[in-house]
User: What shape does this take?
Amino acid sequence: MTVADGETRSDKSGTAAVGVAADRDRVAVRLLKSSAEKFFDPIVDVDWDAPFEEGKVWLPEHRTSLYGTTLWETLTPEQRVELGKQELAGILSFAIYAECWVGLMFLRSVTEGGLIDKRSQYALTETAEEARHSIMFARLLSKMGVEHYRQPKWRLYLMRFISFVPLGPFSYGSVMLIEEILDRAQRESMNDPDIQPHVRQMMRLHVMEEARHIAFARDEVRRGMESRGRFRRAPHRLCLAFLALLVFPLLVPGSVYKSVGIGPLRGMRAARRGPHYKANIQYYCEPMARFFVDVGMYEGFLAKKLWRMSKGLPDDLV
Ligand SMILES: [Fe+2]
Ligand SMILES: [Fe+2]
Assistant: This one.
């Protein structure tokens, strides 16, 4: 290889790197513009003074964890509404933990990344949006008059550990796991007239801003996977598949069942064995699972096995 050849190749790779950085910047600029045009304030954009409406529910019945089980048949209509309320409280509590963790990741991406470039500016914008979302969830929980659900210690340790792994497709894929599941659930319910109006408004506002977050995380996962070879992709897809296995059971804490006189273990077992458990998870996961397959996250024996165990893959992909 001549010096001239070497210079040419180095010039080419330098040009490609500049092209990738410019393209990432373009995505960040587009999302920054959208953030400036479409945003909300949780303090004024939800009518917190209005009372809850009689006869409305908190979650769609068919997405309540015990729906379709024999335990569900033993519950009175009031207990079914109460269980939906407690499950919503569990999901909102989990969402606050998850969004704080997403904020930590984005702050790290600023200090470890370009600091003042457009991508960092967007990461800071998204962190601020997640903080507003958590304030909205906290306000809703307070207004509902229910206790929040704390995550057990081992899950907090796991979140702490994940917070320090190198940023890459696994970290942004983890962000997607949280955001896309919530987004899919909220899009289904936000226009349902049977749901409490405060809950519907919370969902509408959240969906509006999460669309940007999902676009950003997907872009990062795709780029991260494309820029890595087969061996460097493997730990990312293995860790993500393992996390997918844990995320679904985290959404509904076992203690919600105590509110309707059912022991946590009995409730969790019934929900896991219920006729709609798999269909619900597949529904929440479908667009995200297809994206993960497309970018090479669903490859390798172990990762595939973990994904299948999570029950989140649509049947045609399994
Ligand atoms: Fe959010
Ligand atoms: Fe988000």
User: Anything to note?
Assistant: Residues 3-37 form the longest helix (35 residues). The radius of gyration is 21 Å. Residues 3-310 form a domain with the Ribonucleotide Reductase, subunit A fold (CATH 1.10.620.20). Residues 99, 130, 133, 206, 210 surround fe (ii) ion (ligand 1) (CB under 6 Å).
